[in-house]
Design a protein that fits this description.
The complex is a heterodimer. Chain A is of the alpha/beta class. Chain A has helices spanning 7-16, 23-35, 49-60, 75-78, 84-98, 106-113, 123-129, 146-158, 189-194, 205-215, 221-236, 245-257, 265-271, 279-288; strands spanning 39-42, 63-68, 80-82, 119-121, 134-139, 160-163, 167-170, 176-181, 196-199. Classes of the chains: A alpha/beta, B alpha/beta.
Chain lengths: 294, 473
């Protein structure tokens, strides 16, 4: 199956799925589908990296399989695991029934307990074995340990998983793989080499306004403009955590909930907590935007 | 296909581009090279931006290298040739100087051009294509440096910018933009931003023209600045410094993550077994201890005393290093910082936890005056004063870090004092922001001090983070 027909097609279909992609995002997403290569997304938190994967799955009607990475994630949680308890039961059952026969053939038992029935598939293996179109999202891959990256290599380059007892499971249909990273550490060259790379940054004012109006349809056009301008101004300051799209959307919802019709200095000062999450950032914003203290 | 590729020169251009990227420090592997070509085959080539996105997706895997990539892409795949389509269309008959369409560089032309530029910049919505065309015109008319023969002429963005001086248009621009009912400061910022982006376009255009004249490889060698993490502190411009400052905290965070991970993994092999947790975990595998658990290690931390030269020549370097080390303060147990020029001043108090980096830097520069009596760097005097006033800061567990270029204006070096200072601490390092080949030239006392303290070259953010990483062990 082809995922998208052209970069323009990717942009249009992502838009209908509720994701407004810029040209670079659309082109790279299209390429990831056309070349069947994994797509590595980097960028600040809250700019819509995970959302892109979800939008691809909505736009193409594929199912989403998600692997959330965290420190300490291992093979058993990411790839597959043998159902140890069930295997034990099986051995006991065989022994109980077979004592009369005088020790059932070990080889038979061995082949038996390492079969499909006792295999617990985890996200990576699940995504590879699925017959239907699949989007595999490997979220926050920078949170894992280096060893897990090694584990990903076989999956990312050849779309196959080797299980010693069963042999190699190759993908019948290559999934659309999306990896996201907040760049809290550098990923290894080996992983990067196998992926297409896209850095998603904060959007420009026009696109951010579109996103806001799509996510928060009740938002007044004028106030959206004020909000986007203020957020852009905040991003120019040197803050510990610059406000992301997710935070602008939160802010817009806050303004609607509080029925604020005009985003003046007072309104900004009162609702700043929705966008800035550090005390020192607050102080800086109040100083630079010349807000009265709330 | 092969034949066609050879004829068109497209493959050659691609290979030269990849070579230039490698030359600029991007590690482009053969596999990525092939990917890029495969990807180009999958997209329409009509739009230059698409081609750039394709190259970026396949060849650049670090955002820090993106600026280098963009600059090189503009050189190897320029948006236009010569004076651009407009000039060629209006002036088919003669050479660039013959037709009436071509403007000569004279006072009327300059006034006329400035008027048109101001108009274009004042527009409500900026027309980027138009500005790009004007940048090309500006370099073509006001930045030309005619050579003696063919192939010797050149263009200078500097000359063009000096002559047209778009910075002087700011006030006019502010007046033009003010009509929209915005406040003045906001408008001024917008005006400055527009002029800044126009200036960048002019520089880009000059690079493009030179590349056309002398071949892209020449420009790639001389005009492309290294990426921000490789840029030398001493060579940084003001805009670079701002960019570097923004890099500091992400860099410190990455380093802290890396340190935590490494300490964890190194520790796991040597620490004593945590019997209870191991047995508890073995229940899941029917009593077989498949994974072992270990006792947490008692954190080993470093007391750090930083003594840094804040005289003009190395002030940036000192500030960066101080900020960086303080951003990592959870890795170190305690930390005291002193600045000096010819007198010592303690600045530890400026680094409150969670403090705003901009404020900290402002405080630091303000306090630099406390560190000077006569304002001429004097390392020997600074060491003596430090020994007199702050010797209590040094304990046998301390790591002493001295930052500076060791240029002491031919004054008494007081090596014996430094020897006593370094003798009383656990470890001592000297970070020198100068290239190692310049040590010992002029008034540099680097070789003398280098015999007492281990002196390490630290010219850019990469070297700095490597050093701090080793220090935190």
């Amino acid at each position: 199956m082809t995922w998208f027909d052209a970069p323009a097609d990717a942009a249009a279909r992502l838009a209908t799925a509720g994701y407004l992609a810029d040209a670079a995002t659309a082109t790279t997403t299209y390429l990831a589908g056309a070349l069947e290569k994994p797509l590595l997304l980097e960028g600040p938190a809250g700019v819509g990296k995970t959302e892109l994967a979800k939008a691809v799955s909505r736009a193409t009607g594929a199912d989403l399989v998600r692997l959330q990475c965290y420190e300490g994630l291992d093979e058993a949680r990411a790839l597959y695991e043998w159902n140890y308890k069930k295997q034990l039961l099986r051995i006991q059952a065989t022994n109980a029934g077979g004592t009369a026969a005088g020790g059932v053939d070990w080889d038979a038992t061995h082949d038996d307990i390492f079969s499909e029935e006792f295999l617990l598939t985890r996200p990576l293996l699940t995504a590879i074995r699925r017959e239907e179109p699949t989007v595999l999202l490997i979220d926050e891959v920078d949170k894992t340990d280096i060893e897990v990256e090694g584990l990903l290599l076989e999956v990312l380059s050849d779309f196959q998983v080797t299980i010693p007892e069963l042999g190699t499971v190759a993908a019948t249909r290559r999934p659309f793989v999306v990896l996201t990273s907040n760049a809290s550490r550098e990923l290894s060259e080996a992983v990067k080499r196998r992926c297409l790379y896209l850095h998603i940054d904060y959007p420009d004012a026009a696109r951010e306004r579109q996103i806001l109006q799509q996510q928060v349809p009740d938002l007044d056009g004028r106030i959206a403009e004020q909000l986007v301008a203020t957020v852009a101004r905040l991003r120019e300051l040197e803050l510990k955590k610059a406000p992301s799209i997710a935070e602008s959307v939160d802010w817009a919802r806050t303004l609607i909930a509080l029925e604020i019709r005009d985003l003046d200095a007072k309104a900004i000062a009162e609702t700043l907590g929705a966008v800035l999450k550090h005390q020192s950032d607050h102080e800086r914003a109040v100083k630079e935007l010349k807000l009265a203290r709330a | 296909m092969t034949e066609y590729a050879e004829q068109s020169g497209l493959l050659d251009r691609h290979l030269a581009f990849v070579e230039a990227l490698r030359g600029a420090g991007l590690s482009v592997s053969l596999a990525e090279d092939i990917d890029a070509l495969a990807a180009l085959g999958a997209v329409p080539w009509g739009d230059r931006a698409t081609v750039r996105d394709v190259f970026a997706a396949t060849l650049v895997k670090k955002q820090a290298q993106r600026t280098t990539f963009d600059a090189l892409f503009d050189v190897y795949f320029p948006a236009m040739v010569g004076d651009g389509a407009a000039a060629v269309g209006g002036d088919e008959a003669g050479g660039p100087d013959a037709g009436e369409g071509a403007v000569r560089d004279n006072a009327t032309a300059l006034v006329d051009f400035r008027d048109r530029l101001a108009e274009a910049l004042e527009a409500q919505e900026i027309d980027e294509a138009e500005l790009r065309r004007m940048a090309a015109e500006m370099v073509g008319v006001f930045g030309a440096m005619p050579g003696r023969g063919p192939g010797l002429s050149s263009w200078s963005a500097y000359t063009a910018l000096q002559r047209v001086a778009p910075q002087e248009l700011v006030d006019r621009l502010v007046a033009g933009l003010m009509g929209e009912g915005a406040d003045e400061e906001d408008t001024r910022r917008r005006a400055n931003r527009r002029i800044g982006s126009f200036t960048a376009m002019v520089e880009e255009d000059a690079r493009r023209r030179i590349a056309e004249e002398k071949g892209p490889d020449h420009v790639a060698e001389v005009a492309i600045r290294p990426s921000i993490d490789k840029l030398a502190f001493m060579a940084a411009r003001r805009t670079d410094l701002e960019e570097m400052r923004k890099e500091i905290f992400p860099l410190a965070r990455r380093l802290a993550t890396r340190l935590a991970k490494e300490q964890h993994s190194r520790h796991a092999r040597t620490a004593p077994l945590d019997f209870r947790r191991t047995v508890r975990a073995s229940i899941a595998t029917g009593g077989v201890p498949v994974t072992t658990h270990h006792r947490p290690k008692r954190p080993h931390r470093t007391d750090l005393v930083v003594l840094c030269d804040v005289s003009g020549s190395v002030a940036n370097f000192a500030q960066f290093t101080l900020l960086f080390v303080f951003a990592l303060r959870e890795v170190f147990q305690s930390m005291r910082a002193f600045t000096f020029i010819d007198h010592v001043h303690e600045v530890t108090g400026h680094f409150r936890p969670g403090a705003d980096p901009v404020d900290v830097l402002a405080d630091l520069s303000a306090s630099a005056s406390h560190a000077a009596l006569w304002g001429r760097t004097n390392y020997g005097r600074a060491f003596t004063k430090f020994e007199e006033a702050h010797l209590d800061a040094l304990t046998p567990k301390t790591t002493l870090l001295i930052l500076g270029d060791a240029r002491s204006n031919y004054s008494d070096l007081h090596e014996d004092t430094l020897k006593r200072l370094t003798g009383s601490v656990k470890r001592a390092f000297w970070l020198n922001p100068e290239h190692e080949r310049n040590w010992g030239t002029g008034d540099s006392a680097a070789p003398t001090y280098g015999e007492i303290v281990r002196m390490i070259e630290c010219r850019n953010l990469t070297q700095l983070s490597e050093f701090v990483h080793d220090l935190a062990w």
